[in-house]
Amino acid sequence: MRSHKSADDEKCAQLLDAVAAAASRRAHTVAELSICLGVHPSHWYRLRRDPTALRRCQHQTLEGIAKYVDWSIGRVLLASGAVSEADLQVEVRPDTVVASALKTLKAGPFGAGLATDLDAAAPDHKRLIAELFLLVQAQSTRSFHPSR
Fold first, then answer.
1. How far apart are CA 132 and CA 7, in angstroms?
2. Are 28 and 77 part of one and the same domain?
C-alpha cells in the first residue's frame, strides 16, 4: 500500500532538509550537528526517519533548530507542526490598535515630548500620531538584530 504524505508532513521534511543542508554547508558531522541542536545523535536519526516526530520535540530543541537554519522560531513551529496557522490567526481592529498605540505612547518617553494632550486631540490627529508611532516602533524593531 502506498502512503500519502500530508502538507504538514512535507513541511516537517522540508525543515529537516534545511537542517541537513545547513550541516552540509558547514561540514558538520552528525555529532557536531546534534550538539548544535541540543539533541543526541540517535534523536537526529529518528527525526530524519520520521519527520513528523518534530511535533513532539521540546521547545528548546525547536529553538536550536531555528538558530541553526537561521529561521524565525515562528516559522520552525509552523513547519514542525507544533502549532498550526489557525493557532496564530489574530483579528486586528483599527480602533483597538490606535488606542493601544496611544496608550503605549503616553506611557513612554515619546509621550513626554507631545505639546498637545492626546485626549484633547482630534480623532484624525490621534490616528496619525498612532500610525507614526507604530512606524517608528516597526522600524526600530526591524533594524535590531541581536546576532549582528
1. 40
2. yes
What is the pTM (predicted TM-score) of this model?
A: 0.58
For residues 14 and 80, state if they share a domain: yes
Question: Distance of CA 28 to CAs 12, 24, 34, 69, 105, Å?
Answer: 21, 6, 9, 13, 47
Number of domains in the chain: 2
In this structure, are residues 58 and 65 in contact, taking their beta carbons and an 8 Å threshold?
no
pLDDT in tens, 106-134: 888 777 777 778 888 888 888 888 888 88
Asked whether residue 148 is domain-assigned, the answer is: no
Contact 65, 19 (CB under 8 A): yes
What is the DSSP code (8-state) at residue 8? H
* Measured CA distances, 92 to 60, 65, 97, 100, 102 (Å): 30, 30, 7, 12, 16
